[in-house]
Amino acid sequence: MPVEECIHGLEPGLCDICTPRVVEEPVRSTPSRTAKPSIARTSLRTPPPDRSGARVAAAPPPVRIDRGTQRLFHVTHVDNLPGIIADGLVPGAEPAVDLSSPVTRELRRETEVAGLPVSATVAFHVSPEASRWVELRSGAEGATWSDAARATASADLVVLVSTIAAVSAGVEATVLTDGDAAGTTTRFAVGEEAQTTMLRRLRFEEDGLLGAEFLVPAVVPFAAIAVIGLANEPAKERLRALLPSGRTPKVSVYPPWFQPAED
């Protein structure tokens, strides 16, 4: 059966709207016999149940997830694309248009993860509605962003889309975070098993993916980018003039990714 084309211009399987993720239900075993009802008991070691009505945070269900297919999003200025096309996404590179403030750059230089400063990695968001990305497209207010970011129109921004499997190829120690990589309370996961566990928890929690980052301590080649998202058709035509001939990412106009947050 042929795969229907995504109406938003994304590759099959990359659009959360046309091809939503299917969450597998955990396998539940059927008891061989009916268990006798147990009587709740309390002791000095076990506190009595809370009858105040307050909810206790539930643990994420043991569903199976494919870490490698998790989509990643890197936001940059269109004027930075020539360098990315030529050399890939390079850790610590000085972009033509720097959207991050000097304070943000300094914090990421001072914070180490897996023996490397955060600034020595290529950072991706784990959601197209990531908190920082929404901040940027909504006016770039706050100390995180540079004056150049505040002067940038949404039409001058691009979203580079890839997957964990694509950006991790040949890389030993990628890092998944549950928040800003330079944050003091952020937790980190290194290795496939630890990242799968954290990713399961982040997907289970409401808004869990919005602050998460995926860090790659190596050059991410331009060939690892599957889709380039843009705000409008003029931006698409401008981008096509920059792309080399031959194998290039799919170019998609998807305005919702570039709209400011609603008040």
Structural class: alpha+beta
Q: Proportion of β residues?
A: 15-25%
Tally of alpha and pi helices: 7
Distance between the termini: 43 Å
Provide the spatial order of strands within the biggest beta sheet: 1-5-9-10
Q: What is the global morphology?
A: globular
Percent of residues in helices: 10-25%
What is the mean predicted local confidence, pLDDT? 84
Radius of gyration: 22 Å
Strand tally is 10
The main β sheet shows up as: 4 strands, mixed
Would you give an account of this structure?
Keywords: DNA-binding, Glycosyltransferase, Membrane, Nucleotidyltransferase, Toxin-antitoxin system, Transferase, Transmembrane, Transmembrane helix. Residues 27-58 are annotated as: Disordered. This is DarT domain-containing protein. Residues 70-259 form the DarT domain. With 263 residues, this protein is α+β, with helices and mostly antiparallel strands. It has one domain (67-257). It is 20% helix and 15% strand. It is built from seven helices and ten strands. The longest helix is centred in the last third of the chain and has 13 residues, at 192-204. The relative contact order is 0.18.
